[in-house]
Amino acid sequence: MCVNCIRNEVDITEGIPKQVHIHFCRNCERYLQPPGIWVVAELESRELLTLCLKKLKGLSKVRLVDAGFIWTEPHSRRIKVKLTIQKEVFANTILQQVFEVEYVVGTQQCDDCTRLAAQNTWKASVQVRQKVEHKRTFLFLEQLILRHNAHKDTTNIRETKDGIDFYYGHRGHAIKMLEFLNAVVPIKYKTSEQLISTDIHTSVSNYKFTYSVEIVPVCKDDLVCLPRKVANSLGNLTPLLLCTRVGNTIHLVDPNTLNSADINTTVYWRSPFLPLASAKGLTEYYVLDVEPLGPVKGRQVLADVHVARMSDFGHNDNEFIARSHLGAVLNPGDTVLGYDLSHSNYNNDEFDKLDRRSLPDVILVRKSYPQRRKKNKQRTWKLQQLGKEVDDMLPRKQDVARIENDMEMFMRDIEEDPEFRSNINIFKSQSEARQQQPAVDHGAMTDSSDIEEEDFPEISLEEMLDEMQINQDTSDQQQQQQQQQHQDEDDVMMM
Length: 495
Prior knowledge:
This protein is α+β, with helices and mostly antiparallel strands and 495 residues long. The chain has 14 helices and 25 strands. It has helices at 3-9, 46-54, 111-117, 136-148, 171-184, 228-233, 265-270, 349-352, 370-374, 397-416, 418-421, 430-446, 449-452, 467-494, and strands at 19-25, 30-33, 37-39, 63-70, 78-90, 93-107, 124-129, 154-159, 163-168, 187-199, 204-215, 223-225, 240-246, 250-253, 260-263, 275-277, 283-297, 300-309, 320-324, 335-340, 362-368, 381-382, 389-390, 426-428, 464-465. The two termini are 39 Å apart.
């Protein structure tokens, strides 16, 4: 028999279905790979072709030579694959045939999306709290979560009065969030579990896990008084210290000597202490003179600073000489914020044990830029925020004002501290930049107050990111992972 007659008599595609159904989840855009695995695959991708070939039952009885997609309308819910197969029909006679298989895409909701659609359905939750009067720590923590994409596995994020709650569909995702929080902020946590159901036949129980996380109540720019035992263990430091940075440890510095110490989570919770004063208790001072003393430690320079309260400046002759670590950034005529110990009364047992005669009258914290703030210039940058839900009870007017004030203070910290904003993704605000740029240039030429604060730490364009750049970087990473996966598969096939 000739080839045409053999092809008419024998059909090697018999037993291979010409129409197959596959399932697709619209919410997460994943395809079902039986029995219960959902995979991400784009149209006409290698992953989707692998999934389609696995759905053909009789393909193992023939030899697959080639397979490829035939273009179809993306919204047609049809995927067509062109296959080339070979099979031995008679002795020493191999027949090759080309045919098409049509895949009908049906919609089906995956298990994860089903849990998201159902209300109050979660397996584990992480409740983050901090016992302070402001939310600057949570604003910083939110930016760290966005930078490292630590919220990708959450099913819901709810903002409460004292913190944030993260909900997860799996316990392992909640544990991963705990590890992330422990790496960026000093915390302690407790675990509790609630029994939901039990199968008496298989002894399988269903639990809900809750992790209660408490962040150390010490923030940047806080004034602290260490217990005598803790101060001695850190090298006989002075108990009265200033907090300059909070990461996975608390970084404290002595403004009088530039001696510093790091307190980790274990040391803090063994002998916890509360701050004497926070950023809300800062007083504004006018710098009269700066005299460097010589010791330098990084960006900190020890100096004697001659200051006077802004409220007293021009009214009386009350002046102070404060030893400070800000000798490198302060100049005569600047404005600085500090704590006024001469007119303060702190309710703290450790502070009462100190000799008041040996304490300084003023502890300077950071430089301020009041003239620049009075202009109310629109910022040419912005920050991303998490998609959080709020409690059913709406905040009062006082709470709204407090939240706005905390956000403004956080924005100022980003502008004034380059090291602080190095861990935050800052995005361009193009619309505001186009509208405000001419006004900024004109003000710089006519207003003399800009000359007084030339060292205002503006955020450069190099530090700002475009939102499309983040998406492009993410897609590039995904493409690299896919290419690596394809290369691994090719190596396995060659072996």
